Amino acid sequence: MSIFRPCIDLHDGLVKQIVGGKLTHNKAIVNHVSPHDAAHFAALYRDSGLQGGHIISLGENNREQVLSALKTFPGGLQYGGGVTAQNAGVYIEAGASHVIVTSYLFEQGSFSPARLEELVRAVGREHIVIDLSCRKTTAGWVVSTNRWQTLTEQIIDAESIKKLEANCNEFLIHSADVEGMQAGMDEQLIKLLGTICNLPTTYAGGGRSVKDLEKIQELSRGKIDLSIGSALDIFGGNGITLEQCIYWNQATKAT
Questions:
Q1: Which residues of the chain have pLDDT under 50?
Q2: Under DSSP, is residue 198 helix (H, G, I), strand (E, B) or coil?
Q3: Which domains are present in the chain?
Q4: How many Å from the N-terminal Cα to the C-terminal Cα in the chain?
Q5: What is the pLDDT of residues 57-101, one digit of tens each?
Q6: Dihedral-angle region of residue 82 (phi above 0 means left; psi in -120 to 50 means alpha; beta otherwise)
C-alpha cells in the first residue's frame, strides 16, 4: 500500500522548499523558508510515527542542521547530499537509517558499478537508497545529477532497475520536471515505476493533495510511496495538511 513519506530539504543552512529543477550552484527559486530548524521537523516526524522520510542537503552550510536532525530521530531518516563511499559511514553512525546516493555513482555521465560496490562495502546494501531522480526525454526518463542539471546516460527501465536492486535497499525518484511546482505528478513515470520496481520506492514531484495519495495508490497498485513538500501546510502550502498525511498512513496500515 502506498504511504506518505516526509522530507526535510536544507539549502544554505535553512529548511526550504524550492523548485528543484531550477536549482543551480548559486541560484534557487524558493517556495518557502521555514522559521524552524531541521531538528524541529525531525522531532515532529518522530512523534507522529512517520518513518522512512529523507533529509536532503542542497549545497553547503547544512552539516550542523543535518547532524542535529539525525540525532533527534535516530534510525528514522534517510540522508542524501554529497554522499560517497568515503563519508557514508559517518551519516549512518550519526543516526541515518540509509544514505541516499546519486551523483557519486556516475562518472562523466556513465554509471559506475565500481563506485556502487565501494559504497556497499562501506555501509552494506541494507543502508543504501539509490536516487534516480530524472527528466523526461525523447529516449525516456533519464537520470539527472548535479542538482538535476546534468543528464546522464542512464535510462530508467526494467533492465537498469533490476541490475541496481541487487545492491541497494530502496529507490528515491524525484521527477525534476515537476518537483516543487505543485502542478501535478508525472503519472506516466509513476505507472512505470509501479511496473518495474520491486524494492520500496518513493516518488517525489508535484504531489499536492490527498487525491494524489489516492492516485499514486491506484497508478502504482500500492507499490510506490509519495513524498509531498511544497504543498504541505508545515512548509507553507495549502494543498494538504500533515495531519491528513498521518491519517492516510494510519488508515493504510490498518487495511
A1: 21, 24
A2: coil
A3: 4-254 (3.20.20.70)
A4: 9
A5: 988 899 999 999 999 999 999 999 999 999 999 999 999 999 999
A6: left
